[in-house]
Amino acid sequence: MLRLLEKWVTLYRGIPGPLLGRLLAAPFVLSLVDLTVTLLFQPAEYWQGDRSTVIEGNPIARWAFSIHPLMIIPGMIGWYVIVIPLILKSPAWLGLRVHVFLVLGHLVMISGWLIRNHETGTLFAVIVWLFALPLAWMLVEPYLKHWNSKVPIAV
After folding, report:
1. How far apart, in whole angstroms, are the C-alpha atoms of residue 107 and residue 126?
2. pLDDT by residue (tens digit) across 79-90?
3. What is the pLDDT of residue 85?
4. Rounded distance between C-alpha atoms, residue 129 and residue 58, angstroms
5. Which residue range forms the structural domain that includes residue 96?
6. What phi and psi values does residue 134 have, to the nearest 5 degrees?
7. Closest residue by Cα to residue 110 from 40, 13, 63
8. 8: pLDDT confidence band, cut at 50, 70 and 90?
9. Residue 154 domain-assigned (yes or no)
10. CB 144 within 8 A of CB 138
11. Which among 61, 72, 74, 88 is least buried, having the fewest CB atoms inside 10 angstroms?
């Protein structure tokens, strides 16, 4: 396990911190907000132990939540292990598109939970979009000149 962790750290050695922060902050934070609203809006029966009442659109996440709420943690770590190299190590044209897809996807999912489950959910969803989208844009904007580049941004 330690060897695997050491290999993973070595893979990202030399990538500037600002690049890591700019390209990973929005997808990471939005995935945590998405997880939070997913857990927040589960029915009372789910929290009383009836895992069959889980509400989740992602079939893999639904399977994890049907076992236990904490089962999503290994899944999220696995997801990050896949997504981080896609953003940082793949050609920039792919990495940037993955980044945009994740940001927009999480914003859509967060909005869906808010709109369906809260009286003022539409207002909250609009506020989330008005806050998150410009912030995500500011973080990724310096790298958009590489939108069609065939080399990774981290090079």
Report:
1. 10
2. 888 898 899 889
3. 87
4. 21
5. 18-146
6. -65, -35
7. 40
8. low
9. no
10. no
11. 74
Give the span between the Cα atoms of 144 and 131, in whole angstroms. 20
Total structural domains within the chain: 1
What is the band of 66 on the pLDDT scale with cuts at 50, 70, 90? very high
- Locus of tokens 């330690």: 2
Residue 30 lies inside a defined structural domain of this protein: yes
- 13 part of a folded domain: no
Q: 20: pLDDT confidence band, cut at 50, 70 and 90?
A: confident
Residue 46 tokens read as: 């789910």
DSSP, collapsed to helix, strand or coil, labels residue 57 as: coil
Q: Retrieve residue 49's tokens.
A: 């132990």
Residues 51, 48: Cα–Cα separation, whole Å: 8
Please choose, from the candidates 106, 92, 93, the residue with its C-alpha nearest in 3D space to the C-alpha of residue 136: 106
Instruction: Provide the pLDDT for residue 69.
Output: 94
